[in-house]
Amino acid sequence: MELQLATTPLLAVGQTRMLQSSEDGTVPGGSAWTRTFVGKNHDGLRVCSYLQFMTVIARRELVSPATRNAFRSLATDLTVRIVAELWEDHGFAPIPPEELKYEDPGQRRTMFMLYAEGVDWSDPDHVRRALLVFEDFIRAYREPGQQDTPKWWEDIRVRLERDGFALDESGKILWAAPPVLVRDLSSLSDPSGITIELERIRRDLTTDPPGAIGAAKQLIEATAKTALRELAIEIDNNAALPSLISTVQKSLKLDAASAPDGPDGSKAIKKVLSGAINIAVGVAELRNQGFGSGHGQASAPSGLGVRHARLTVNAAVTWCELILDTLADPAAPWRRATP
Q1: Which of 112, 175, 289, 303 is the most buried (most CB within 10 A)?
Q2: How far is CA 298 from CA 163, 181, 208, 287, 295, in A?
């Protein structure tokens, strides 16, 4: 078996096996395998290599193992009871000891890991609470009145910074680049198109405004296509973005014309829904006018700053959240059977 791992949130796991095939090339087990002829064996039978790709969605961990290890080291000088209390104060519970893969003779570090392994480090809500735990570890470990900066503090500060956080002098941990879209995407059959664009936005928002604007437009497109796929509606890959936006909003009964009676059909909501379409189309137009990445320009756009990127990203996220929330809502109008 050979593994092929990509560096993006989309991981391709390649699984190769050698099979004897008949002369007509029949593939045992179905057509999911891609055949490559590699020769004949000693009996004269054709031998082929079959390659099957399985898509695995891996959400990015917001706090790296290196940072978690640095905080685990702080547990060495605390009691087992205090280590457990610091986690439990913020609603965390330990995993069963038999499920812990970490081996360490130190009881305090092991106790730390029993709780840390129960955290979903890709979930922004879990991470927010875990950061509060880390702040408490710093306060419990730090010597009162200490004026100089100890080595462990600098080590933690650097590791947090690499993860996109900042550690201030009081020991508070701040998001340097908070998550763009705080949504659980696990219910989607394949959220990879959305997560890739979120990663691009997170990477470029404060350092590459055109890149962030381009990714914001692509986030809208990815969300629209993902929603249509979840609704089992054929996607026209050649359709312009305004057409995709209109199609998905109509399919979810989010356009002013098809909004039903009740709150969703009120004049105020209809105005908001019409505005949502204008927001999404406006993001696309901004990018197409040369202010976002994706098109080569004779001259670089001038005056484009982080505030423009943040405005565009926030506008895109507003539309995407509307689509994803409506798609996931069991009581949304689109779910009602058509009479």
Answers
A1: 112
A2: 36, 33, 18, 15, 10
- 101 burial (CB, 10 Å; 0-12 / 13-18 / 19+) is exposed
Of the listed ranges 29-33, 238-242, 253-257, the least confidently predicted one is 29-33
Q: Beta 165-167 vs 34-40: how paired, if at all?
A: unpaired
d(CA 222, CA 243): 14
Q: Which of 305, 309, 289, 285 is nearest to 202 (CA)?
A: 309
Contact indicator for 35, 48 with CB cutoff of 8 Å = yes
Residue among 8, 64, 6 at smallest CA distance from 198? 8
Give the closest residue to 82 by CA, choosing from 104, 115, 121, 105.
Answer: 115
Helix (H, G, I), strand (E, B) or coil at 140: helix
Count the helix, strand and coil residues of the chain and give each as a percent rounded to the nearest 5: 50, 10, 40
Three-state SS string over 267-329 comes to HHHHHHHHHHHHHHHHHHHHHHHHHCCCCCCCCCCCCCCHHHHHHHHHHHHHHHHHHHHHHHC
